[in-house]
Amino acid sequence: MTTTTLAVLVPLLPFLGALAGLLLGRTAPGFARPLAVLPTLASLALAATVAARQGGGGPVDAASELTPTGSVPIELALHIDGFAALTAVVVGTVATCVQIYSTGYLRDDPRYPSYAALVSLFTSAMLLVVYTGDLMVLLVGWEVMGICSYFLVGHYWETPEARAASLKAFLVTKLGDVPFLIGLFALAADAGSFRITRILGAVAHGGIDHPTLISLLLLAGVAGKSAQFPLHTWLPDAMAGPTPVSALIHAATMVAAGVYFVARLLPLFEASQAAMTVLAVMAAVTMTGSALAALAQDDIKRVLAYSTIGQLGYMTGALAVADRGAAVFHLLSHGAFKALLFLAAGVVIHAAGTNSLAAMSRMSHLRDRVPDAYWTMTVALLALAAIPPFSGFFSKEAVLGVAEHVVTGHTEHAPAAAGWIVLLAGLLTALLTAAYATRLWLLAFRGSGTEAPDHGRQPLTMTTVLWVLAVPSLAFGGFAFRALPDWFDGHDLTPTLTTSVLGTGVALVGGIVTYATWRHTTAYAARVPLGAVAAHPEADAGQVEAEAIASHEPAYGDVAHAADPADPGRLLLGRLHRHAAVGFHLDAVYSALFVRPVRAGASLVRFLDREVVDTYVRGAGTLPRWLGAAVRRAQTGNLQTYVSALLAGTVVLAVAAVLVATGA
Amino acid sequence: MHLAYPAVLAALLFCTGLYGVLARRNAILVLMSVELMLNAVNLNLVAFDAWLSRVAEDTLHSGQALALFTIAIAAAEIGIGLAIVLAVYRNRGTSDIDRLRDTAEGHDPDDPDSDATGRALPAPAAGEKAEATA
To answer: Which residues make Cβ contacts (< 8 Å) with residue A522, sequence separation at least 6?
Structure first.
């Protein structure tokens, strides 16, 4: 088969799997698991084949116009360069791991068939976004991901948290998608095509008339999808979904789509200095803010959610300094270790029966209950904190190295201000990332107190994928940084000495300071008993997690944080802790800016409808009613009255007829 | 005979019938008045038929045929009418059409207070009924 055929099959197979899963899920539940895992696995194999054949050489382009669509043609186009080929492999790997993991995680869930089908559809949409060469087709995948995330985040729709989170995820991303759509139309109007190759050609020849406007409009959509400030607020709340869904959304699919989109169209963004500066500021605010917020969260998955936002900030930072190689490098390595972190967190939540770090820090021997999760999570947290030689180190140093290049004036693609912003924010975030990674690890696995409950070994499907993902988290960066430039633009991704020493230094400082604080605060843990455990600890992991999320607010007073004096993050952040725990009140700002005006508008419309429009309607009805009441009085029930009236009428008519006939 | 005599007689008969329909209270007398009106029309039909057959030499005698037709219809009508009156009288104890006003606006058949003709006056109704059967 040709490379094009293989590439078409890559998004098509999970799509067909999703269709079959949705159709057969009820009638033949036995097929649900094979239908979920096998198409994804096959598409991973095909994506790997495509990547091997493409081999970092010239991009594979193919297009077919299904039907004429008016002025700007929409074509089913493929554009597979090194970025697309490698991203598709990571998407396939993570999706396969998630599907395998879900078979164990949602073992007893009655809604498993529809869940697995939606995960397949999600994967297929992401692969479509990765491979397509036409922006309209990309938008289709983009929006399918939006609706799938709505369904998957709301998987436990019995709980109000999940319902609210799924609606929020949908609405906030749509808030970005509207400008995104307008930006796409403006771009197509300027370039005369939706094909990425032609748009980039037009950019190269200066054929785009409004690069700043278009870039900023597109950035709004990217911020929504990739959870960048100020549209990131849906992501921490999306933790109300099952853990495998979080892994899928956070590691390789939805949030990566925005970064990937900018990487594809980077020359367009480079054409506008303003857009690059906005991108840099957005990245800087996102990464520092999210790292501070991560340090204050109590829910283990919310810590990871904020860390995802921060790592995405690194990627947009790399894009802001005009190096998409570094951005996609970080996307790939982050995809591996973040998927691992989430899947391991799911195992930990199942074993502990709670998602609260405060409760876990009061359990001893949790690490002996889940040795697989303990070791793999340690690897992934080291990668997250960018400690050499784990893969996160190389990709993060690539980002920082590029920023340093821009600062020292080695490149003319990006403004030096953007370089400074990204470099300083990146170093500060490296410090904070190491701090919250250390805090997470210490609280989850170094707790003391009553012994953690023992539910036996975790399902093999759940633990195996952890080790599969631990390999790239450990070794991908070290082996790949030499080979990747051939696949990407050719920029060198080798860590530079200055940023490596600085980055690793601040990371070590962050880790050590957190450890010292933890040594100081852990003594309080015994004094303040805390902890709530799921009602059915023997149930499958999905149910345990749903119960843990639902019980967090009644048990600790908030979905995000707990009043735990033994938390080192509380001491480290000081007075900032209160604000960081609620995400710096951004939800309150949104509530004041959007929710309350919309509610007020709704009550105004309700008033207008009930009191104004209805008054007219009622007024129009009043006159006929009065007339009717008047006429009704004539109906006396006396037959003779009626006949008299009939006679009188007849006489009048007869007289009139006679008068008319005689001409009088 | 001049046409005016039967025509005037028919008009007088019709007016008598009309007065009876409009003014009498007993349903049977109203029905009798209707009969008077019908017979006034019959008289007209026959008179004009005779006049036309003489003046215009009409041989069809459609007036007479129509008069026979009206008599048949009137017989059927009075049969049904009397049966209805009898049924109403048995049911309500009265055939006074001033008191048979169930179709009046605002009349509630389930409300005993507003039903002035029926259950509200059981005693005289029973008495009248007894008289009628006697």
So the answer is: A361, A448, A566, A568
Q: Are A636 and B101 within 8 A, CB to CB?
A: yes
In the predicted model, residues of chain B with pLDDT beneath 70 are 107-134
Q: What is the pLDDT of residues A389-420, one digit of tens each?
A: 888 888 888 888 888 888 887 666 677 788 88
Backbone angles phi, psi at A80, to 5 degrees: -110, 105
User: What residues form DSSP beta bridges with A132?
Assistant: A78
User: Which residues of A make CB contacts under 8 Å with B?
Assistant: 632-633, 635-640, 643-644, 647
Contact A17, A122 (CB under 8 A): no
In our burial notation (b when 16+ CB lie closer than 10 A, e otherwise), range A27-58 reads eeeeebbebbbebbbbbbebbbbbbeebebee
**Cβ-based neighbour number of residue B78 at 10 Å:** 15
Furthest-apart CA pair in chain B: how many Å? 65
Q: Which tokens sit at A446?
A: 């170094």
Integer Cα distance of A550 and A156 in angstroms: 10
DSSP-based three-state secondary structure for A450: strand
Closest by Cα among A383, A398, A396, A518 to A446? A518
Write the CA distances from B102 to A147, A346, A587, A654, B98, integer angstroms.
64, 78, 69, 32, 10
Crossing angle of the two packed helices A112-131 and A32-54, in degrees rounded to 10: 10
The domain that holds B74 is classified in CATH as 1.10.287.3510
Q: Which residue of A has its CA nearest to B24?
A: A640
The domain of B18 spans 4-133
Number of domains observed in the structure of chain B: 1
Q: Which residues of A touch B117 (CB under 8 A)?
A: none
* Closest C-alpha among A345, A332, A307 to residue A392: A332
pTM over cut 0.90: no
